[in-house]
Amino acid sequence: SASPMPRGASGSTACRSLHQPVNMTELDAFCAELTCGDDARAEQAALRLPEFGLAALQALRELLKSLDADVRWWCVRALAGFGGEADITLDLLVALEDVSDDVRQAAAMAFCLHPNSQAVPALIRALSDADLMTAKLASNALIVLGPAATPSLLAVLTSGVASARLEAVRALAEIKDPAAIPGLMRALETDSALMQ
Prior knowledge:
Blueprint: H1 24-34, H2 39-48, H3 53-63, H4 69-79, H5 89-96, H6 101-113, H7 120-126, H8 132-145, H9 150-159, H10 162-175, H11 181-190
Helix pairs in contact: 1-2, 2-4, 3-4, 4-6, 5-6, 6-8, 7-8, 8-10, 9-10
């Protein structure tokens, strides 16, 4: 299974335009490479697919429905390479609820590259994920969102499971929002597990 960290990811790949004419044969070839099972070839395809704009987005959205978790992971990896012109938030939200730990990890990682306040409720839920790497990556994505995530993170301190509370404390400490200090101090005073 693929690692949660996108290999070779250097941020978003700029799309020439989401609405440019596309050579469908070439797009189909890159989609085939993405799903071929060879990580090196799939990574190269993931890096190139954003160049195909909207046509690639549509193809990736279809591939996200695959029964194969590895295919879904590579779709999320490719989606993460799209620039800000492409709205992939809903796609990443679906992936964040995937049955596969690896796909959820990739989605949380993608939200680090594509921060969106619409994702806060789903990322907060992911702090309680049974997979601790997914929870940590969701926390990282909330950190990238900054103070916009503070109220939701503070709520986790009072109502979340222990592992989620720990991730919330970590995120709040990294965000450094002065508005979080009173809630953080209350949580630390009443929950000795957070002090360890």
